[in-house]
Design the sequence.
């Protein structure tokens, strides 16, 4: 058995333990962090916690090697998406091996990468590091990449600033240089109730909401026609309405309606401009007639989350490709914490084990070969930091 094979087996053991912690985003991640803290303490690896305001969640920043510039950060989130309502063939919080696939919630997104980080600690410590390696564990990535932000604010201050951060989102071990930005919104309409037999005396919030959704559909078609970045699939910015609800009864003109929607924007396109344009349309074509019936009617749009896109520079991509032993980088349409690191001063790329197509699904799995590929990446990171 090779050294990398042994580390891969260790990564599988760590993965089994990490999967056993239910770190769905509405729950605390402190129990999982306590497990990681114990591993770091036994390995004499110093670390620092960055808790949230309530103290029920935290990020963790660990340092291996000397306190000098030029550190490489390895970063992953500890939270996962819910399993409620999904039809699993196995216990989602018990890692199950079937053939060469390891099934469990978070196995791909992204506890597989976290397990490789932990398994690589002896590898990182076995050589004489000339520059540090940082292990970064965040929370609440799945609900808008919110948990890592307080930690990033401390980079270059109470925490060292990495030269490069590798965010280990599932990319089949390929280097990702860019991804779309995400802006999500809630639009709330307040109409005016009336009996449905005299609906001309009321303002249906549902009808107004439908007209706004129709407007967004038209804007999507314009983006599809006017944007084309062939690196991405789809090659244009997308607008999606995910939830819409409202009304009281069949025979009451609806007073309230709300819909939740998002824009996934190509690099260089401001997704918030879609919301601004929609509200300008509402103020010109919808609100005047609504207010004629009742001055209490309204349309409001709130930005709920904003995740910046990623557009790595050539030097950062070059280092990422060197560490991954690859010649070509790629782009993805999903969002990650990488853009936040980049804005915070730490150049970033994405490179992690597993396939994003398995993420968030019932029967999520990661192939054992993906863990082995990731451990080889960890070995090259160690070698790079020893020179």
Sequence:
């Amino acid at each position: 058995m090779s050294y990398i094979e042994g580390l891969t087996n260790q990564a599988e053991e760590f993965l089994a333990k990490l999967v056993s912690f239910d770190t769905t985003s509405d729950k605390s991640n402190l129990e999982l962090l306590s497990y990681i803290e114990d591993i770091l303490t036994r390995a004499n690896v110093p670390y620092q916690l960055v808790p949230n305001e309530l103290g029920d969640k935290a990020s963790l920043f660990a340092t291996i090697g000397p306190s000098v510039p030029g550190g490489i950060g390895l970063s992953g989130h500890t939270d996962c998406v819910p399993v409620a309502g999904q039809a699993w063939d196995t216990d989602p919080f018990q890692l199950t091996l079937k053939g060469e696939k390891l099934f469990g919630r978070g196995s791909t997104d992204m506890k597989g990468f976290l397990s490789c980080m932990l398994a690589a600690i002896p590898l990182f410590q076995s050589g004489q590091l000339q520059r540090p390696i940082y292990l970064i564990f965040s929370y609440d990535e799945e609900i808008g990449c919110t948990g890592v932000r307080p930690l990033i604010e401390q980079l270059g201050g109470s925490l060292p600033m990495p030269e490069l951060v590798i965010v280990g989102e599932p990319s089949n071990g390929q280097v990702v240089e860019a991804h779309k930005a995400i802006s999500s919104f809630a639009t709330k309409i307040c109409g005016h109730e009336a009996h449905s037999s005299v609906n001309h005396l009321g303002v249906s919030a549902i009808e107004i909401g439908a007209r706004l959704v129709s407007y967004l559909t038209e804007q999507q078609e314009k983006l599809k026609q006017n944007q084309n970045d062939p690196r991405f699939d789809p090659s244009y910015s997308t607008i999606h309405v995910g939830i819409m609800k409202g009304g009281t009864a069949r025979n009451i003109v609806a007073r309230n309606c709300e819909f939740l929607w998002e824009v996934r924007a190509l690099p260089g396109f401001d997704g918030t401009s879609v919301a601004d344009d929609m509200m300008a349309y509402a103020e010109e074509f919808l609100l005047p007639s609504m207010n004629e019936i009742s001055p209490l009617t309204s349309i409001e749009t709130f930005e709920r989350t904003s995740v910046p896109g990623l557009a790595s520079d050539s030097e950062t991509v070059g280092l990422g490709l060197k560490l991954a032993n690859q010649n070509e980088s790629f782009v993805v349409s999903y969002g990650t914490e990488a853009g936040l690191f980049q804005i915070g001063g730490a150049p970033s790329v994405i490179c992690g084990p597993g396939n994003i197509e398995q993420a968030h699904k019932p029967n999520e799995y990661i192939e054992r070969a993906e863990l082995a590929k990731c451990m080889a990446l960890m070995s090259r990171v160690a070698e790079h930091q020893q020179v």
